[in-house]
């Protein structure tokens, strides 16, 4: 645990918040703080100015014209999880929220903050091991270290840190849009482009300019999402990150073929993982356990494992097949 | 008034705890209090090359920085002996900051003292420390080639080998054998309250508020290390937020707090952070155990060979003794138990709830389940058949109860009619199984004479005192019950005081011996005072009881009456006031029978579990547990149930969740917080049933109390593993039994 002198500023407006952060090189926004305060105390992040955005009028949930929902960035996870329009239109998203963290944390944590949640990799969080995400160029301790919970998809030689979010898994499946306001104006970023795989720059996790603030998340209308589900498998029954989680929304036509499918995975990727290959393998094909298994195989064809986490591939494939089979039956 | 011992009395300190008026050792506020923070080594093996304090000293609010360059040399480094022995009890026979050598990751290399916790943390982060790192060896995988046979454990207190008969010959001749090897991850204690010491000097005398399981052990250890008289060290502890063994021994930070307070000339509070609690007060060591059983077709055990390999520190021959139960819970003429050690770059491991025997029993009790299957016998009958009336020395048990625990548990759990065939019950995606294990935990009489004082004032109010502190298990309540019954007063007029070395000696509340030791001393003090008061009355010409034989006087509600005519009598207060005595007091002593007492000394129990195992994903959830125990007299069934239930949950955690590994590159513990070192949460905890088998024991003290601190954990993980086998047909050779262990068939063994 460390402590450093820090300047704290409570922003009264979005413009004030953006101006405060963008004009100060070592600054950061502070939303719910449920990860960020930990990382400050662990010396992992070291801003000298914190700009609190909790007073900004961004806690709303509202319908957008095409039947979707716009979620203000400061809406608390617990409020979003129980909002009737979320429960009705995107039950899998509600479930993902309720299976994340604990009720106390969900009462504090914001939706925008969740999009910026950092990895739980212990080498990142210890503040001193070589870690390319925290200290670019210093190396990756996890590659040959304790890596049972590390990612098997979307990894690189530089980083295998797992993305920890649950709700982001739902949002990548739903093709959400991240809306921002920054020093250069407003921006809308498709969510899959918002989460950057580590590649050669694991320290860059999002395409955000310094001072660019997430103000809302747009979730588009998607009728098939009304029967969506989120299942989370983990070592203990509650208050833990996923070993593997599965978000699914599927429609099977009268002929028994997969007509629509949204599938995304948590716990296995360096980013919230949209299972595009599995979706492509299944669309238009019979919804059978054999095809589900083939689709799961396709999704993990390029998985890169270590001796400690290779079980995750089998685990995840079985979880996918089970989930799609249960949805079908 | 009827006796209160045996009644489920509520905790007398409950209101203090839930309202926050009870002060823990980290909540002691003193004028001018300063805050210390340890800086731990960032390498696991090597040398401190330089420490640049410039920026830290300039940070503001810093009163002092201690490193190996200015830390006083310790006067006498005691050797490692369990605190139960009543001697100085350092957690390791090593004191940091005496030179520049680093033996383990997190070893204290500096101590910053500042005017606030935050200032200390800030300055600590600004210390620029460079190391010359060596390659750490801290795991069995890296140290196996260097393993050696230990001769003794605990600084010579216990032999590391236990042998009788001809085990190799008996195994060769056995009609049936079972052979299994297990790997167990290290465990950390994680009490809610991390260790904290607040130190204040007054001239040459120091007072320590120390979150310890034994104020006396802290006093003895600190006095030795500082080289000052025992009478100059006072240790006070009124509330402790859990220990589980992490506070059973006295770790360097306690003495460092005293050194720091002297260094800065102010009282100092030194608290371990949660991450530091993984590197500062020991752990249950990573270990392998191998067991080989030989038996006849009739189920009679003919041979047990039980070996353990584990990692200890460079400076201590520490191993949790794994064979104290396996050598005696079942009768067997041919036995070999031994311990091999790897000296590696860890701190000295230490007592962790049900030390030694929880994993030793896991090994034995899962092997017994294998044997039952091998023989086609019911595992309960196999155990009862092999459980002897005497211990391994031929001494009768001080009290037994093993068979009754198994049978009562079988009834409560619904064991009868169980189909033993593995892998045949499925509900949805889950395979369902049930398992049983026996439990035993040694009663270790290594402590010195125990003392307590009972004092009654002339208004009839009573104070009973002894030094060993409450650390959460409820002794303040149960000793109030014992004192009230012993003296013959209502609990409401009695206050029990403890947790202060200025009070009469009782030894650390460790090794499941706290209730035995304290209740014996308190009972003897209270009954001595009662007898003194009765003697006074019958010899007092003005007393209505004058002339009666003391044996014909009974006491209840603070009133002495004739057993012949209940209308004749007077209260203690009347007696004292009439005689112008402001108070009377008595010291009570209890001399334990000693380690060589001719009795078998185990507390017995039986554990049952039902599990659901995800057939594809390997995740295990416990559906219900039943534990039945025979701990002698139960002073307070509500408190005892809580202790035993907690122990069973520890067993659940040990079985399924708890495990830490050392990163082989850095020598650092991989997990250092409660978010990632997993312990069960409420959602993991099933219906748990705890019951007792009554056994009388006139060996273990005047009240016949055996402990309940550890035995609740013993056998719980084995019952779960046996249930997993019943569910899946897969034997578990690794703890914790994580998803991949179950998916991959149970581990290495």
Automatic annotation (TrEMBL), chain A:
- What InterPro entries does the record point to? CO_DH_flav_C, CO_DH_flav_C_dom_sf, Diverse_Substr_Oxidored, FAD-bd_PCMH, FAD-bd_PCMH-like_sf, FAD-bd_PCMH_sub1, FAD-bd_PCMH_sub2, Mopterin_DH_FAD-bd
The answer to whether keyword Isomerase applies is: no
> What keywords would UniProt list here?
Oxidoreductase
- Ranges for domain FAD-binding PCMH-type come to 1-224
Q: What's the protein called, per UniProt?
A: Dehydrogenase
TrEMBL record, chain B:
Family annotation (InterPro entries): Ald_Oxase/Xan_DH_a/b (IPR000674), Ald_Oxase/Xan_DH_a/b_sf (IPR036856), Ald_Oxase/xanthine_DH-like (IPR016208), AldOxase/xan_DH_MoCoBD1 (IPR008274), AldOxase/xan_DH_MoCoBD2 (IPR046867), AldOxase/xan_DH_Mopterin-bd_sf (IPR037165)
So which domain of life are we looking at? Bacteria
Write the record's keywords in alphabetical order, separated by commas: Molybdenum, Oxidoreductase
Keyword check for Secreted, yes or no: no
Domain Aldehyde oxidase/xanthine dehydrogenase a/b hammerhead, by residue range, is 19-135
By its UniProt entry, which PANTHER family does this protein fall under?
A: ALDEHYDE OXIDASE 1-RELATED (PTHR11908:SF132), XANTHINE DEHYDROGENASE (PTHR11908)
The protein's name is Carbon-monoxide dehydrogenase large subunit
Lineage of source species: Bacteria, Bacillati, Actinomycetota, Actinomycetes, Micromonosporales
């Amino acid at each position: 645990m460390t402590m450093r002198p820090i300047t704290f500023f409570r922003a009264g407006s979005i413009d004030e918040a953006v101006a405060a952060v963008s004009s100060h090189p070592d600054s950061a926004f502070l939303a719910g703080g449920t990860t960020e305060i930990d990382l400050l105390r662990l010396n992992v992040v070291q801003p000298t100015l914190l700009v609190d955005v909790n007073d900004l009028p961004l806690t709303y949930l509202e319908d957008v014209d095409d039947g979707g929902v716009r979620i203000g960035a400061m809406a608390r996870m617990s409020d979003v999880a129980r909002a009737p329009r979320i429960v009705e239109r995107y039950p899998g998203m509600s479930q993902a929220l309720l299976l994340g963290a604990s009720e106390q944390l969900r009462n504090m944590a914001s939706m925008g903050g969740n999009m910026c949640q950092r990895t739980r990799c212990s080498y990142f969080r210890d503040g001193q091991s070589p870690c390319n995400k925290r200290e670019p160029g210093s190396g990756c301790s996890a590659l040959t270290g304790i890596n049972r919970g590390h990612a098997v998809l979307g990894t690189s030689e530089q980083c295998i840190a797992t993305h920890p979010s649950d709700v982001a898994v739902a949002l990548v499946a739903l093709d959400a849009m991240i809306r921002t306001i920054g020093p250069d104006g407003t921006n809308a970023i498709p969510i899959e482009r918002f989460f950057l795989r580590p590649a050669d720059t694991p320290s860059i996790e999002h395409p955000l300019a310094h001072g660019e603030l997430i103000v809302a998340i747009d979730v588009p209308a998607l009728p098939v999402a009304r029967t969506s589900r989120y299942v989370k498998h983990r070592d203990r029954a509650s208050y833990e990150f996923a070993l593997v989680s599965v978000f699914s929304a599927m429609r099977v036509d009268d002929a028994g073929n997969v007509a629509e499918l949204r599938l995304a995975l948590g716990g296995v990727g360096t980013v919230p993982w949209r299972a595009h290959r599995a979706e492509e393998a299944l669309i238009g094909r019979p919804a059978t356990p054999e095809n589900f298994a083939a689709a799961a195989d396709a999704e993990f064809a390029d998985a890169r494992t270590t001796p400690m986490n290779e079980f995750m591939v089998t685990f995840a494939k079985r979880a996918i097949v089970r989930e799609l089979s249960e949805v079908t039956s | 008034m009827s006796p209160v011992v045996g009644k489920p009395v509520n905790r007398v300190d409950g209101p203090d705890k839930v309202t926050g008026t009870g002060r823990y050792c980290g909540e002691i506020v003193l004028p001018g209090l300063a805050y210390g923070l340890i800086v731990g080594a960032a390498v696991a093996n090597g040398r401190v090359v330089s420490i640049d304090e410039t920026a830290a000293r300039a940070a503001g609010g810093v009163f002092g920085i201690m490193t190996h360059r200015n830390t006083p040399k310790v006067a006498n480094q005691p050797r490692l002996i369990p605190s139960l022995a009543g001697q100085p009890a350092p957690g390791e026979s090593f004191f940091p900051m005496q030179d520049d050598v680093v033996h383990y990751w997190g070893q204290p290399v500096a101590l910053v003292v500042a005017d606030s916790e935050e200032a200390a943390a800030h300055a600590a982060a600004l210390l620029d420390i460079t190391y010359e790192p060596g390659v750490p060896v801290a795991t069995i995988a890296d140290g196996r080639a260097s393993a050696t046979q230990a001769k003794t454990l605990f600084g010579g207190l216990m032999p590391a080998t236990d042998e009788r008969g001809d085990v190799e010959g008996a195994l060769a001749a056995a009609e049936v054998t079972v052979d299994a090897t297990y790997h167990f991850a290290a465990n950390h204690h994680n009490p809610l309250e991390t260790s904290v010491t607040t130190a204040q000097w007054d001239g040459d005398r120091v007072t320590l508020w120390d979150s310890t399981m034994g104020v006396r052990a802290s006093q003895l250890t600190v006095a030795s290390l500082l080289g000052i008289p025992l009478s100059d060290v006072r240790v006070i502890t009124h509330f402790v937020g859990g220990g589980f063994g992490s506070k059973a021994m006295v770790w360097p930070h306690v003495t460092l707090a005293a050194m720091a307070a002297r260094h800065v000339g102010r009282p100092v509070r030194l608290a371990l952070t949660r991450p530091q609690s993984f590197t500062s007060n020991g752990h249950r060591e990573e270990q392998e155990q191998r067991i080989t059983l030989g038996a006849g077709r009739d189920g009679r055990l003919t041979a047990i060979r039980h070996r353990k390999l584990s990692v200890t520190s460079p400076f201590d021959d520490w191993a949790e003794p794994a064979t104290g139960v396996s050598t005696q819970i079942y009768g067997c003429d041919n036995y070999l138990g031994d311990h091999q050690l790897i000296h590696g770059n860890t701190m000295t491991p230490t007592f962790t709830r049900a030390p030694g025997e929880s994993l030793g029993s896991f090994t034995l009790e899962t092997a017994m389940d294998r044997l039952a299957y091998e023989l086609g016998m019911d595992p309960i009958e196999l155990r009862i058949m092999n459980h002897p009336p005497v211990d391994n020395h031929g001494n009768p048990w001080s009290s037994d109860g093993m068979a009754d625990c198994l049978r009562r548990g079988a009834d409560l759990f619904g064991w009868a009619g169980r189909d033993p065939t593995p892998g045949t019950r499925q509900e949805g995606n889950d395979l369902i199984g049930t398992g049983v294990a026996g439990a035993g935990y040694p009663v270790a009489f290594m402590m010195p004479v125990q003392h307590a004082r009972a004092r009654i004032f002339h208004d009839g109010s009573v104070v009973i005192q002894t030094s060993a502190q409450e650390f959460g298990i409820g002794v303040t309540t149960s000793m109030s019950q014992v004192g009230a019954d012993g003296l013959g007063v209502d609990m409401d007029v009695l206050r029990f005081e403890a947790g202060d070395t200025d009070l009469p000696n009782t030894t650390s509340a460790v090794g499941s011996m706290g209730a035995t030791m304290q209740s014996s001393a308190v009972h003897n003090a209270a009954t001595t005072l009662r007898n003194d008061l009765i003697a006074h009355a019958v010899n007092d010409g003005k007393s209505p009881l004058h002339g009666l034989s003391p044996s014909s006087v009974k006491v209840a509600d603070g009133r002495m009456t004739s057993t012949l005519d209940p209308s004749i009598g007077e209260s203690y207060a009347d007696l004292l006031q009439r005689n112008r005595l402001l108070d009377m007091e008595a010291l009570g002593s209890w001399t334990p029978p000693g380690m060589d007492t001719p009795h078998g000394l185990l507390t017995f129990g039986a554990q049952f579990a039902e599990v659901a195992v995800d057939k594809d994903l390997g995740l295990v959830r416990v559906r219900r547990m039943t534990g039945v125990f025979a701990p002698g007299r139960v002073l307070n069934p509500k408190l005892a149930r809580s202790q035993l239930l907690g122990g069973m949950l520890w067993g659940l955690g040990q079985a399924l969740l708890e495990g830490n590994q050392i990163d082989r590159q850095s020598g650092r513990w991989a997990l250092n917080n409660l978010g990632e070192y997993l312990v069960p949460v409420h959602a993991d905890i099933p219906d748990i049933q705890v019951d007792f088998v009554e056994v009388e024991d006139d060996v273990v003290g005047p009240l016949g109390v055996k402990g309940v601190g550890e035995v609740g954990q013993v056998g719980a993980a084995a019952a779960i593993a046996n249930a997993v086998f019943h569910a899946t047909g897969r034997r578990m050779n690794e703890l914790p039994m994580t998803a991949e262990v179950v998916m991959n068939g149970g581990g290495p063994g």
